[in-house]
Amino acid sequence: MTALFTEKQRQLLGRVIFGWFVVALLWRWSDSAMISQLEQPVLGNVYKDLTFWLFELARIPAFVTGQYAVALLLDLVVTTAALLAFLQPSKVVYARIYCLAILFYFVIFTTYANYHYRPIIGLLVAGLPFAFRSMPRFGTFVQVLRYYVLFLYASAGLYKVMRGSWLNVDQMTMIIEKTQLDLLLTQPDNWHSLFYAWLLNNEWASWSLFVLATVLEVSFIIGFFTKRWDLGLFCTAISLHIGFYFTMGFFAFELIVLDLLLLPWNRMYTKGQLPITAPALSGL
Amino acid sequence: MFNAGSSFFRNTFLGRVVRTDRRVGYFLIAFALLQGCAQLFRAEVTPFFLYGMYSEVLDPLPTYVRTVCHVNGQQLEQTDLPRYAGEFLYSTLDRYQFLEANEGADLFAPFLDQYFSWLSPGTRADLEYQMSFHPNEKPAFERWLLRYLEHVLDEPITSIQIDRETYEYKELRPKLVLRERLIELQK
């Protein structure tokens, strides 16, 4: 059944999601990762991504980064829109401006980061439901994002099964050798380096962790058939992120915001209140 | 058979959305189809991402390459910088060293030839030129490197060296095999 929300539930979810965005953006400001702080980069990569090609062919990334005032304006618009949507989650205009501005930020930043950083998708899509004034549409898009989260993890697990990497005993040690070279060289006595060294020395342990991650990712398929296990899947997603940090040194703060959509927001504040239902949906 | 399929679809989330909000329903079906095509053809076009998460089978490599940056005579590690600044700088340097190793050859020409052969050779050449990095842009890249590092480190910079280091794992420990200088900047 389509999840139906009350205005109060929508506001709560809106504050959590946009609050997360504000923190993510402030973190980026403090790390000099906003467009106006990139100092007019020249080396970019549009990958094989046709959306990036369109931006590049329209010369949007070069135009925005080349004019400090335009870059600063984009940064201020995206941050202010997120902040206003956090303060007034019922006003759809802020969410709409945020969604449009973050798309530009996403493409321009990722182009010049020379790294197709997918976890940032969380900042891009988690605000979408709030761009709709209609409560049933809002509920539909929250549901859609829930399915998207399930797809994201389940497909990651299925890829590992179908490509056979979960049977590759060397897989995890190869990942560590490839991604942790810097740390192993520069801080060999750091606790994280010692842990990586232990994993490299104990291939069975690193492979077991990789198989465990694959199983956990595949388990998200359950969510396509029932919502009963959503809380468990949320905990699984968080466990995966903790595992990614320990085994790969990778922490996807922007992606975790999507995991929040597995929580039962439409069951909060239910005492004495009925969800706002559209006549079209009331017959379901 | 067809009726059973139709009845099954009507009871799915998408089927219910189509019945209650036709426009959104069709939009979601189109999105799901495009996402499906993206998976099938492994074409990553924003926002239709593929989430492989290290699913490609990795085989042991004979050597591994890393980029090293020295600023004012001191080695600057990625971890010396704030998280996003470090990732931004080092992924850019890694791409620079990749282009340098491949004499500027990027991935666009073979990709355009494979999937956009229906475009005229002139159009493909124009597209490739606009999207690629060119050796004559190296001075601009070096000036940017200086600006960005001064901004992030918040101190005047007099020299920058960028090296490519090649390592191999011996007894599970990385050992340096080769060091090559890519950029030498003095202010």
Compact summary:
The complex is a heterodimer of chains A (284) and B (187). Chain A contains 14 helices and no strands.
Explain this structure to me?
The complex is a heterodimer of chains A (about 280) and B (about 190). With about 280 residues, chain A is mostly helical. Chain A has 2 domains: about 1-135, no CATH class; about 150-270, no CATH class. Chain A has 14 helices and no strands. In chain A, helix 7 (about 135-165) runs antiparallel to helix 11. The longest helix of chain A has 29 residues, at about 135-165. Mean pLDDT of chain A is about 90; it is low at about 275-284. Chain B is built from 7 helices and 4 strands. In chain B, helix 2 runs antiparallel to helix 3 and helix 5 (about 110-115) packs antiparallel against helix 6. A 4-stranded antiparallel sheet of chain B has the order 2-1-3-4. Chain B is elongated and about 75 Å long. Chain B has about 190 residues and is an alpha+beta fold. Chain B has 2 domains: about 1-60, no CATH class; about 65-105 and about 135-185, no CATH class. The model of chain B has no long low-confidence stretch (mean pLDDT about 90). In chain B, about 20% of the residues are buried. In chain B, about 50% of the residues lie in helices and about 20% in strands. The chains are: A mainly alpha (about 280), B alpha+beta (about 190). At the A-B interface, helix 1, helix 2, helix 5, helix 6 and helix 7 of A face helix 2, helix 3, helix 4, helix 6 and helix 7 of B.
